[in-house]
Amino acid sequence: MHDEGIQTAVATIGNDVYKTELVARSHVVVADEPLDVGGKDLGPRPGDFIRMGLASCTAITLRMYANRKKWDVQQIRVQVSNGPFEGKTSYKTEIEITGSIDEEQRTRLLQIAKLCPVHKVLTNPIEIDTSLSIA
Fold this sequence. Notes:
By secondary structure, the chain is α+β, with helices and mostly antiparallel strands. The chain folds into two domains: 1-43; 45-125, 2-Layer Sandwich (GMP Synthetase, Chain A, domain 3), CATH 3.30.300.20. The protein is 31% helix and 27% strand. It has three helices and five strands; from the N terminus they run βββαββαα. Strands 1-2-3 form a three-stranded antiparallel beta sheet, with no helix packed on it. A hairpin with a 6-residue loop joins strand 1 and strand 2. The longest helix has 24 residues, at 46-69. It is elongated and about 55 Å long. The mean pLDDT is 95.
């Protein structure tokens, strides 16, 4: 995984209510809101992308580590959820491993999961510098 330098994502929304085109590198996806809040449910909600980013980064990090160690890990399933906020942001990550691993490997994989780049970003202080220009 390459997290060197500045990474950029661009979101563009026109007059379609909530439908937003997102571009990162050469990949294009759509974000939207569900029908019950006025969207057309054409894609994940913005918060879904945070959960998906943490889940996929955790899974990829674990796969890389298990492969490097040549451990018998057939499948890694990572579920990330978050609920109501009470003065803080709280996420729950649940990992399910299919394969033959012992308790020591299980403990190590749990440690490695917390070292994925997205987990590190979300658990460290974050600063967002926002500016506005008129085109």
